[in-house]
Amino acid sequence: LKTGAWVTPLNFRFTDDDIRFCARTSEPVAFFFDEAYRERIVKIRRELPTIKNYIAMGTKIADNVESMEELIKNSPSSKLSVKLEDEDDCALYFTSGTTGSPKPVLIQQKSLMCTALTEATNHYLVHTDRFLMMPPMYHVAIGHMLGTMLVGGCSILLTEQVNPMNIVNAIEKERISVAFLLVPWAVDILEAFDKEEIKVKDHDLSSWRLTHMGAQPIPPSVVQRIKAYFPDMQYDTSYGLSETMGPGVVHLGIENERKIGAIGKPGLLWDVKIVNDKDEDVKQGDVGEVVAKGAGVMKEYYKNPELTAKTIKDGWLHTGDLGRIDEEGFIYLVDRKKDLIISGGENIYPGEVEEIIIKHPKVHDVALIGAPHDRMGEVVVAVIEPMEGIALAEEEIREYCEKNLPRYKRPYQVIFDKIPRSPTGKVEKPKLRDKYSKKA
After folding, report:
1. How far apart are CA 424 and CA 163, in angstroms?
2. Among candidates 5, 8, 10, 52, which has minimal Cα distance to 34?
3. CA-wise closest residue to 251 among 260, 262, 234, 264
4. C-alpha angle 320/325/329, rounded to 5°?
5. What is the pLDDT of residues 4-24, one digit of tens each?
6. Which residues make Cβ contacts (< 8 Å) with residue 376, sequence separation at least 6?
7. Lower CB count within 10 Å: N or C terminus of the chain?
8. If DSSP states are collapsed to H, E and C, what string results for 32-98?
9. Which residues of 10-32 are buried (b: 16+ CB within 10 A; e: fewer)?
10. What is the dihedral of CA 170, 173, 178, 181, to 10 degrees?
């Protein structure tokens, strides 16, 4: 980044076709990769014509591939004389969204600084903080790490599998003060505590002052369960997108725990409002699209001016998320615009229903999708992943929904299956629709 070059991080799970797609789009000149991927990269390098330099990290280096270690050793230590401006392009991220193929998001230098400032101020970070970095580093969730970097704090990378024991051990051993948790990770930790697979009293977790969560609507019940184990734990909700260089556009605020369930208010360098399809402000309490303006907004969808023009209007980024604002100015996320289910003329927001069903003591995870229906247009399909090792019958779910949901929001169909999630914790609803969204 200090040379003025662009960085394009790739998902290590990408197939060869994914790599070819990203290379055609970004036209890179150099490719850095771990030695574990050496054979794959060497195999397809003829199909990546713009790449002139291949640099591997490790000891098993092939012909015409440079060693990262040697490259660093032989590079001059003199200070770079490149002058960088806020508006300079610096990174191309491929979204890991929930709506199909990844889109290339072009980020500017000012976006990185905006994210660092937002993260540091939202969470009151100081140089003595130690942050546990678990989100994937190819994703703009790396913005979490930039705030710690800005204040001179320390980020600890969890190199082992993300599971409850490894997380708890890392917090204890490394004296972690701040951790970002995706909802599935938090639920797994809480279940391990509940079953006493991990006994809290056996671990010194006194350094852990703050948990913040994001990447999806946060069920208040999950936060309440965390607070039951750690009454003095600070909590914050972070909201952001790849198109905003990651987290913090809206955040709850450590001092606003009474409003758990809201995503909060705009961060330090952000303006946010709720609009209708004509881009007019909606009335307080009405549902509309969340739009955001700030230094962190992407420059464009690279090489796609049409989609860029649809997404950024007069500087306002249209997020595709539906939300509402209460009388105190707190924003509540309702759902993705594309996930809205319209059944018999009624708008059903899956996130609101999911928040109710996840409270069932036998439910580990849940996702709602719409299925075509001749009479109703669409009906609600609930895909439910029960707690591990616990039997859950459809009739139990139906009785629970009868007590807790109005008739039109109740699932027409209940399916028990594992909920697919991306590495950043988002439910992969396109996969569920492909599998289950047949005519009901």
Report:
1. 14
2. 10
3. 264
4. 125
5. 999 999 888 778 888 888 899
6. 343, 344
7. N
8. EEEHHHHHHHHHHHHHCCCCCEEEEECCCCCCCCEEHHHHHHCCCCCCCCCCCCCCCEEEEEECCCC
9. bbeebeeeebebbbebbebeebb
10. 20
Give CA separation, 8 vs 17, 28, 58, 106, 195, in Å.
Answer: 16, 8, 20, 10, 42
Backbone phi and psi for residue 137, each to the nearest 5 degrees, phi listed first: -80, -5
CA distances (Å), 138 to each of 74, 94, 356, in order? 27, 9, 33
For the packed helices 394-404 and 350-357, what is the interaxial angle rounded to 10 degrees? 110
Helix axes 220-229, 183-194, angle to 10 degrees: 40
Q: How far is CA 435 from CA 303, 371, 387, 417, 429, in A?
A: 32, 11, 22, 11, 10
**Cβ atoms 41, 34 nearer than 8 A:** no
Are 424 and 136 spatial neighbours (Cβ–Cβ below 8 Å)? Answer: yes
**Euclidean distance between CA atoms 95 and 424, whole angstroms:** 11
Whole-angstrom distance, CA of residue 122 vs CA of residue 261: 17
Q: Is the pLDDT confidence value at 65 over 80?
A: yes
DSSP H or E run through 413: strand 413-416
Cα separations (Å) of 167 from 96, 175, 188, 295?
24, 12, 11, 33
Cα(373)–Cα(440) distance, integer angstroms:
5
Identify the H or E element spanning 353: helix 350-357
For residue range 104-161, what is the model confidence (pLDDT) as tens digits? Answer: 999 999 999 999 999 999 999 999 999 999 888 887 778 889 999 999 999 999 988 8
The rounded distance, in Å, linking the Cα atoms of 356 and 135 is: 27
pTM of the predicted structure, to 2 decimals: 0.80
What is the DSSP pairing of strand 104-108 with strand 300-301?
Answer: antiparallel
Both structure tokens of 194 = 């509940």
